[in-house]
Design a protein that fits this description.
The protein is an alpha/beta fold. The protein is built from 15 helices and 14 strands. 45% of the residues lie in helices and 16% in strands. Helix 4 links the parallel strand 5 and strand 6. Helix 9 packs across helix 13 and helix 12 packs across helix 14. Pfam families: Glyco_transf_4, Glycos_transf_1.
Length: 409
């Protein structure tokens, strides 16, 4: 088959969607399929197809989109600057895809609601379309609006309605919808009007043997003597809940000081998080390591993994921590309770509950036997649950179903 993997997000980039696309491309090509990729450039100035000479500047497309989306023609789109930005970006992708030509593909596998909506409008009639939903854009944004009233967006406002509508149309695009867990499926069915019978649910896979080899490659970051290491690899964004972790660590410091926390990653909230850390006088305990390419080595040098997010789907960071044999302390957000068995291979705390998270951290710092047992169980769980071969069997099944549906007159 000729397959196009497409996303609204930048490629390459640091994050789970790109990691998923890379491993999917590698496995599909090993099976004899021809696979291309399409997405935004890292500097967000063009739509491109890495590995080819196909790219199209947004400066070229902007006048065309402006003619379509001018204020006189669609005043409702201009009522919110973020809505306007997203509509421009969606049309850039749609026009670039039409310019590059996508009729040659047997199947297009989109990785977000923006790309799914765009390619639904430009695909050839007999090209199958799979809409993979890796998270909820609408839920993340409306949650952000609720928690930050200073943004001025209330329920029923144009921006609120726009993203809910986009989630509905994007998730319903094409021939079949894919989610990684039942939480995401139920959200699409209950909140965004997607028919349950069009959704296929299966988890991501991980090349466990390859990742296990990386664990042994080490890191230049040393464990501080006499301290246990808490690690949180995550994008420094609102939705990842790093501020929740820092607040819990402040509580923890009042009880014991035999730990440090490595926060690995970068993002738009970095300055805010550094400020919070300084205000709580945690500069000696909480270390911001930035973006790094030795995360497996850092995990292998750590004792406890934390993901205190406000919203997430099936983060690769949790999967990798489990392969590394670390107990995972996660929030109850999104699909995380389907990844961690509370009290068996990790611990779950309510979203934004700093007291419970601090108590759980203290318990694992105090009880070495429990911490090691949870980590041992996590490694065994990961070996069974995150099979790459199982994931690829599910992917091919979905592709065959979508192609069969695309052939129906």
């Amino acid at each position: 088959m000729r397959i196009l993997l497409a996303t609204y997000w930048a490629i390459p980039h640091v994050g789970g969607v790109w990691k998923y696309m890379l491993q999917l491309k590698e496995r599909l090509e090993a099976m004899g399929h021809q696979v291309d990729m399409l997405g935004n450039s890292p500097d967000n100035t063009k739509i491109h197809m890495p590995g080819s000479n196909k790219e199209l500047s947004k400066d070229v497309l902007r006048p065309l989109v402006m003619a379509k989306l001018n204020a006189a023609r669609v005043p409702q789109v201009h009522s919110d600057h973020f809505v306007l930005h997203c509509e421009f970006e969606r049309y850039y992708m749609e026009l670039a895809a039409a310019y590059f030509g996508v009729a040659q593909y047997d199947l297009i596998h989109t990785q977000d609601i923006f790309a799914a909506r765009a390619f639904e409008r430009v695909r050839a009639p007999r090209t199958a379309l799979v809409a993979h939903v890796h998270g909820s854009v609408a839920l993340e944004l409306t949650m952000n609006y609720k928690l930050n009233p200073q943004l001025g967006v209330k329920e029923g406002d144009p921006a609120w309605l726009y993203f809910n509508g986009l989630e509905h149309y994007g998730a319903n695009a094409g021939h079949i919808t894919v989610t990684a867990n039942n939480w995401q499926k139920e959200l699409l069915v209950q909140s965004f009007g997607v028919q349950a019978n069009r959704i296929s649910v299966f988890p991501y896979g991980l090349d466990i043997d390859a990742f296990t080899r990386k664990l042994k490659q080490g890191t230049t970051v040393s464990r501080p003597p006499g301290k246990k290491v808490i690690i949180c690899p995550a994008r420094l964004a609102f939705v990842k809940g790093i501020d929740v972790l820092i607040a819990a660590l402040y509580r923890l410091k009042q009880r014991r000081q035999d730990w440090v926390c490595w926060i690995v990653g970068n993002g738009e909230k970095r300055d805010d998080l550094l400020r919070q850390t300084a205000e709580l006088q945690l500069q000696q305990e909480v270390l911001f390591l930035g973006e790094r390419d030795d995360i497996p080595g850092l995990l292998n040098n750590s004792d406890i993994f934390v993901h205190a997010c406000i919203q997430d789907n099936q983060p690769f960071s949790v999967m990798e921590a489990q392969v590394a044999g670390l107990p995972a302390l996660v929030s109850s957000a999104g699909g995380l309770p389907e990844m961690v068995q509370h009290g068996v291979n990790g611990l779950i705390s309510p979203v934004r509950d700093t007291l419970t998270l601090a108590t759980q951290l203290e318990m694992l710092l105090e009880n070495d036997a429990l911490r090691r047992q949870l980590g041992h169980n996590a490694r065994q769980w990961a070996a069974k649950q995150w099979s790459m071969n199982t994931m690829m069997s599910n992917v091919i099944r979905v592709y065959q179903t979508a192609i069969a549906k695309s052939r129906i007159p």
